Amino acid sequence: MSAIASLFQEAARLAAGFRQAAPARHVPTRGYAASLAAFDEPLPAASSDMLDVIRQLANDAEPGLHATTGPRFFGWVIGGSHPVGVAADFLTSAWGQNAGNHTVAPAAAAVETVAARWLLDLLKLPAESSVGFVTGATVANFTCLAAARGEVLRQVGWDADANGLFGAPEITVLIGDDAHTTVFSALQFLGVGHDRVRRVRTDPVGRIDPAALADTLDTVSGPVIAILQAGQINTGAFDDFAAIIPLLKAKGAWVHVDGAFGLWAQASEKTSHLSRGIEAADSWATDGHKWLQTPYDCGYAIVRNELAHRRAMTIAASYLPLAGEGERDPSHYVPELSRRARGFATWAMLKHLGREGVAALIDQCCASARLAADLLAREPGIAILNDVALNQLVIRFGADLPSEEGDALTRKTIEKIQADGMIFAGGAKWRGRNVLRLSVTNFQTTSDQAELAVESIITAFRSVSENSHPR
Ligand SMILES: *Cc1c(COP(=O)(O)O)cnc(C)c1O
Q: How many angstroms does the Cα of residue 137 sit away from the middle of ligand 1?
């Protein structure tokens, strides 16, 4: 066998071994400091054998890896890196294509064209929209908001892409009080400022209050960008697009939706009522590496006005004609030039799952989340704080106790759950209180897995409560 073949086979063997072990072990046995110690050595002077390097990498990294790909990983909002996406990603790395340009990487550009069309179809978004294949929803938000910034200023006669923001007319940015932190980062990167926004009041689950928005709009004039949300990071709640977008459109606003995971509600008949009216927005940010289960890094910046998208992302776009060009240059829709051919893994996942498979995946996650919520709510002292319509659960322990005691009990229960290691889930703050947050975003989280998770949570909770309040 050639050296290349044995090297690649060894990597594949190690990868498969890790994936087989992942369902059993949920938390790293080595944290950051121990992982650092494992890798810490001076820059090697001499070369090392290729196979040895790969074996050492796996050996030293694995104890410090979370089983994020396993069926009982509920931390943050993390997808499962589906084997088909991973295999496509192996090939992507092996092919080493630079996806910036269709002449340099024809197949990579072509696959993005097709995957973009499939995504718009699946997510029920306007077919004329353009799609940028970016690293994740943070950069998708950035890309969409760059298009928004350029377009709302262009409409008042200011070319922000050429002249920047110094001396530009002011843009009013409207945003819900419970928007994701990365949207504020995007505003920061764009020179719009993360604090120079008009925050709009939200309801108890994090949805923008339409009446509060209408009141704010009465006081606004000039260019407006509004940032809405499909899937609040804790509660999974959706803004009421059908009610809100028409109000914003009447003001001439550019409406952007952060739908990192929530946009996928569009892909199933059982959940698409949650995102009703979302297609009337101007841009949408979402992730492939969350609910679609592609490996990291994979997100999509979707913009209805292709020209605004291109103007914001390419120097050439403002004078290049769009029509009749034929080929698609991937770099016209993203901030980078040279980059990974992200379309291959997206194509592979969509081809593997198909429309029905994606819907089944969304439904399974939501059903498992609902089941876990129902089972947990039966346990005295445990409260579910959100309406589990999607895949997110906000859980409070010691629901019957004074706030501080409930906070302490919640914190201790989370520590115990993590120490037990049957599942992984982490804490968050919701409405000023400690909570456990579960995100069901893995293709393997069936109802059986949800039941195991509930068992682990209740066992931890009972043991912690007995120790805190000996009867
Ligand atoms: C995860 C997430 C983001 C950021 O996405 P990345 O892929 O981490 O860059 C933005 N908004 C929401 C609601 C998210 O859940």
A: 5
In this predicted structure, what is the pLDDT of residue 53? 97
Measuring CA to CA, how many Å separate 193 from each of 139, 216, 323?
Answer: 16, 19, 35
Cα 273 to averaged position of ligand 1 atoms, centre (Å): 22
User: Helix count (H) and strand count (E) of the chain?
Assistant: 14, 11
Q: Measured between alpha carbons, how far is 167 from 102 in angstroms, rounded to an integer?
A: 37
Binding site membership of 445 for ligand 1 (Cβ less than 6 Å)? no
Q: What is the pLDDT of residues 52-107, one digit of tens each?
A: 999 999 999 999 999 999 999 999 999 999 999 999 999 999 999 999 888 889 99
**What is the atom index within ligand 1 of the atom nearest the CA of 229?**
13
233 CB under 6 A from ligand 1? yes
* List of the chain residues with pLDDT < 70: 25, 315-325, 469-471
Question: Contact at 8 Å (CB) between 146 and 374?
Answer: no
Q: Is the pTM of this model over 0.85?
A: yes
Residue nearest to atom 1 of ligand 1 (CA): 260
Cβ neighbours of residue 326 closer than 8 Å, sequence gap 6 or more: none
pLDDT of residue 101: 86
pLDDT of residue 320: 44
Domain that holds residue 243: 88-349
**Boundary-marking domain end, from 349, 370, 389:** 349
In this predicted structure, what is the pLDDT of residue 245? 98
Asked if 312 and 291 count as a contact pair (C-beta separation under 8 A), the reply is: no
Q: Which residue has the tokens 């949570």?
A: 457
Position 218 in a domain? yes
Residue 370 lies in a domain: no
Tokens linked to 39: 């890798």
**Domain total for the chain?**
2
Nearest CA-CA partner of 411 in 390, 394, 428, 386: 428
Tell me how far apart the alpha carbons of residues 172 and 169 are, in angstroms, rounded to a whole number: 10
Half-sphere exposure of 338 (CA within 13 A, CB side): 2
Give the SS3 label for residue 308.
Answer: helix
Say yes or no: 227 and 172 in one domain.
yes
- Our CA angle for 343, 345, 351, nearest 5°, is 95
Pocket lining: 260 vs ligand 1, CB cutoff 6 Å: yes
